[in-house]
Amino acid sequence: MGDNGRVNDETQTSETGDSRPGERASLDDPGRRPAVTSPPPRTGDRHRDFGSVPSAPPAATRSGGSPNELPDDRYFNRELSWQDFNARVLALAEDPSQPLLERAKFLAIFASNLDEFYMVRVAGLKRREQTGLTVRSADGLTPSEQLTYVAARNAELVKRHAQAFENGVRPALAEAGIRIVAWSDLGEADRARLSEYFTQQIFPVLTPLAVDPAHPFPYISGLSLNLAVTVRDPSDGTERFARVKVPNNVPRLVRIEQSRDSRTATFLPLEELIAAHLDELFSGMQVSEHHVFRVTRNADFEVEEDRDEDLLQALERELAQRRFGPPVRLEVAHDMSEHVLELLLRELEVDPQDVVEVPGLLDLSCLHQLHSLNRKELKDPPFVPATHPAFGERETPKSVFATLREGDVLVHHPYHSFSTSVQRFIEQAAADDKVLAIKQTLYRTSGTSGESPIVDALIEAAERGKQVVALVEIKARFDEQANITWARTLERAGVHVVYGLVGLKTHCKIALVVRQEGSTIRRYCHVGSGNYNPKTARLYEDLGLFTADPDVGADLTDLFNVLTGYSRQQTYRNILTSPNGIRRGLLNFIENEISLAKAGKPAGVRIKCNSLVDEQVIDGLYRASQAGVDVDVVVRGICSLKPGVPGLSENIRVRSILGRFLEHSRVFHFRGAGTHWIGSADIMHRNLDRRIEALVRVSDPRLTAQLDALLDSALDPMTRCWVLRPSGEWVPSPTDSGQVRDHQMEMLRRHGATG
């Protein structure tokens, strides 16, 4: 054997393992005692007492800002926190103090929210589970564990949702003369009229699809309502299965009254009408049973953004695939038979854990349809948004540019009119001969071409020869197709359309108007939290800053150069941007409040946002609390922060306000420094790492006083809200007797937006 097979003398031991360090067994005489190779002890050492093995030195003192000082269990799970948010929406549907049709609307919102949650969040967890990604959530759960918790919580909420409708809203609607009935509830005259409607309007649209060896199981599109039908052949008794899709291009709730002016309104669900006429679809067969079901599919696709590929074409290709995503939820009627359910599970390849049994009407998003009824007494009182005093109308609308030369303006939608502020700003810029350029981001716009006055104004500006740049975010989830249509419309009009940066969504809400005034160029700016969308501006609560401040104008110019060109600027004067600046800026501001508190100076943090998830910012708030800084958070949706935990967050208070308007603005107030920021960014990974966002500092004392008044109202002890406990429970507040305030109604009153 060569050297490669040689056993190293220093590592060899006997087979019995008796050799000790310092001894070497003889290879010649196995019975010979091995020689001791260690030296004998010196005479003076024979009676020495050996002490115990010393312990390690004291641990190094950790620095005050080390995140290791914070406990591991310091976050709530974001998915379960979202379900808590939707439960608060459901609580509004159960609230008898709400107008009845508004309660029905909240039931519909709950259903729509849940659809999107499954299409995106649950789909993402399933994808991670199936691909073997064992990345745990911030609270330490695996994707599989999160899916189990989500399914259990969802079963509870779906049951409560159905009960809220069947036992609460539905009977109350019936008392008010609005009924949703079954076919069996109808009289002969109504049945005859609806049968004629079915024959003329519905029957031609339906396509029953058989399932047998010659007909494979049909594709079931996401969110479609379907009838699973079992029929029997009377000639041989053979049972067969078929699927009938309920059309989604006709109203789900069929109005029975011929007169639309009637105060009473009776509706028959479309699936009931179809089920009553299945014998016409399966002529010569006997209908054994039929059940309603609905499939939700993964809609969280990723566009592979190749720098050399047309992003528009890549996105259109992915959109075409969205409806073929794998199923993530199967909703079934509570009376579905076992063998039909087993067939659906097998053919759709659905995990039994993903089956949701609904005790009542499936897909209550159809209740949105009831809001169109002319029953004003059952709705929130109408309101007319007020024109901001700075833009007050006289015989002719005041010039926005003249107003902004006098000072900054803060608008608060929906209380302030969008059409007489933001829309007028762009329209006046388009018509003004002195305006040289308009640059604007568009994230979500309204429907199809011709419905957006903002886009119409940009087209007019381009036709007048102005330089117009529109950054259209075509990756805005569920608005992709509409935004593609807008982009092409703008391009045809001569607008320079840009799609943003590879790998990042452009979510900031910014507009820049460049105007020639004598020998100087002046820039007018709008930075906001809401979309340039006149429809949502009446439903969403948002803030926007108008300013002619040269520093903000320079900042937006630089930011647009980043968005449209190759600039990589990351620092600005009066704005913060992500993905590089907002988290760092917020953490610096929080650290400054900590320093002020330690120096015995006034300090405090007040935040209003949609969601609070980012662990780094949450940890910064924990450290602020530990330093004695008061922290108040108003959050609409998800909150992963645990408030009120002794030693961790006893100085942090979290509340949530939901109501008539969707609370959408983001406000950051650092009390010690006396600074206020507003903008588009929530405290989430996607906003801080994967989106272009912008926050702007509001400096004018008149405007900061308005922001303080907004926060004071939202945080008033008597404001109607939910308060988050350390346990994760959201508790209705206030609990004390007294005059309960509605924050949104107070804002309506303050801004003069009345009916």
Brief account:
The protein is an alpha/beta fold and about 750 residues long. The protein has three domains: about 80-380, Polyphosphate kinase middle domain (polyphosphate kinase like, 2-Layer Sandwich), CATH 3.30.1840.10; about 390-565, Endonuclease Chain A (Endonuclease, Chain A), CATH 3.30.870.10; about 575-750, Endonuclease Chain A (Endonuclease, Chain A). The strands form four sheets. Strands 14, 18, 19, 20, 21, 23, 24, 25, 26 and 27 form a ten-stranded mixed β-sheet that branches.
Keywords summarizing the entry:
polyphosphate kinase like; Endonuclease, Chain A; alpha/beta; 755 residues; eight-stranded mixed sheet; single chain
Q: Going by CATH, what is the homologous superfamily of the largest domain?
A: Polyphosphate kinase middle domain
Beta fraction of the residues?
15-25%
Share of helix among residues? 25-40%
| SS elements, strand count | 27
Query: Unreliable stretches, pLDDT < 50, 5 or more residues?
Result: 1-48, 303-309
Largest sheet: 10 strands, mixed
Total domain modules:
3
Count of individual helical segments: 18
CATH hierarchy class name of the largest domain? Alpha Beta
What fold name goes in the CATH topology slot of the largest domain? polyphosphate kinase like
**What is the rounded Rg?**
33 Å
- Separation of termini? 101 Å
Mean pLDDT score: 88
* Class from helix and strand fractions: alpha/beta
**Oligomeric organization of the protein chains:** single chain
- Named at the architecture level, the CATH assignment of the largest domain is 2-Layer Sandwich
Overall 3D form: globular
Family: Belongs to the polyphosphate kinase 1 (PPK1) family.
Cofactor: Mg(2+)
Pfam family, one: PP_kinase_N
Organism: Saccharomonospora glauca K62
